[in-house]
Design brief:
Belongs to the ELL/occludin family. The protein has 151 residues and is mainly alpha-helical. Helices cover 71% and strands 4% of the residues. It has one domain.
Length: 151
């Protein structure tokens, strides 16, 4: 089986099914490791030109990430504030108020699961990981070149 680590290096992993006893073998489910596209697309930097391309991609997508992160952080902050308010209202309200609050709470819970918001959050998480990957590749290239006296 061919596996990739976080740096995009591949190694061969062999499993020895003889070591598995019958009960373990019947319950064994191999883990699936999903490798993000940017891991393969942006391997170790080997030239200054390649470094500049990686830096351009980073700069191009950093503003999108910052905008998404700000928007999501604001939304999550509002959610936390509303969560606290709902708990207090449910605790302190009377029967009729509690029914109204439950109705509002149900609508609020649906908003928290809004596909558009979840998609934004997923895109933000993806960009964060991609930008981190690019930054680490650039840093590794720079450190290697400094160590070799090339920069």
């Amino acid at each position: 089986m061919l596996c990739f680590d976080l740096q995009g290096h591949h190694t061969e992993v062999r499993k020895n099914p003889v070591n598995l006893n019958r009960s373990t073998a019947a319950e064994y489910t191999p883990k699936i490791h999903i490798i993000a596209d940017y891991i393969m697309k942006y391997p170790k930097i080997t030239s200054v030109e390649e470094r500049e391309k990686y830096k351009a991609v980073f700069n191009d997508q950093y503003q999108e990430y910052k905008d998404l992160h700000t928007d999501i952080s604001n939304t999550l902050s509002k959610f936390r504030e509303l969560d606290g308010m709902m708990v207090r209202l449910l605790r302190d309200g009377n029967g009729q108020e509690k029914q109204r609050i439950q109705s509002v709470l149900k609508k609020y819970q649906e908003k928290k699961k809004d596909p558009a918001f979840l998609e934004k959050k997923e895109r933000c998480d993806y960009l964060k990981a991609k930008l981190s990957h690019l930054k680490n590749r650039i840093r590794a290239f720079d450190e290697e070149n400094i160590a070799n006296g090339e920069m």
